[in-house]
Amino acid sequence: MPDMALLYRAEIRPTKLELIDSWLPTRSWYQGPAEPGVRRVSACRFDDPDGEVGVETMLVQAGDGPVLHVPLTYRAAPLDGGEPWLVGTTEHSVLGKRWVYDATGDPVYLQALATAILTGGGEAEEFVDGDDGQEQRTPAMTLRGSGTPGTAVPTVGPIEQTTDGDPGRIITGTVELVVHRVLGSADSDGPVLTGSWDGGSPTVLAAVTLR
C-alpha cells in the first residue's frame, strides 16, 4: 500500500507560517530581517506508519532571500525531551491543540527521512478529509531518495548529538543524518534526498550515512 497522509480542511491559529516567522530569527543559520514575513514556496508530506504524527517538508522564503528548508512535525501531545525543537503550539479546528516541532529533533521524521533516502522513496500521497469524504490531491513537491528499493533500514533510535547549523547534523547510534537548511548550492556524498518543485531541477535536501 502506498504511503499516504490524511489532511483536513481546517482553520489553524496561529498558522504554520506565523509560527515559522517567529522561530526563524532564533536559528543560527537564518540570515534575514528580524521579522521575516515568510511565504510558502512548496511543501509535501511523509507518512507516519502509526498514523499519529504529521510530518511535513516545508520550503519557505523571506523576501528575495534563498529558499529555506523547514521540516516540521505535528503532534497531539508534547514530544518527550523535545523542548529544544519546539517551534510552538497551534489550535487546529478539527484536531485541537497541536505541538509543532522542528522535525530534525523528532524520531518519527528522522526514521521517515532515513527510510526515504535509503530505499529510493518519496513523498506520501495526500488525501484531504472533507464533508464528502476523502479527496486525493497532488503534492506540490516531489521527493526522491537515491537509494535502492528493498534496502534494509536500521531503526534510527535516540538522538546522541545534534548540530543546529547549515547543514544540521543529527547523530544516532545507527545513522548520521544531514539536513540542508539554505537551499541552492548544497551537495552531499552518499545517499541523498532531493526535492523538485515548480518544474525546477532536483535540489539536495538531506543525506544519510550509516554508522
From TrEMBL:
Residues 140-168 are annotated as: Disordered. Keywords: ATP-binding, Kinase, Nucleotide-binding, Transferase. The lineage of its organism: Bacteria, Bacillati, Actinomycetota, Actinomycetes, Micromonosporales. It comes from the Bacteria. It comes from Catellatospora methionotrophica. InterPro entries: Mak_N_cap (IPR040999). GO terms for molecular function: ATP binding; kinase activity. This is Maltokinase N-terminal cap domain-containing protein. Residues 23-106 form the Maltokinase N-terminal cap domain. The keyword Kinase applies.
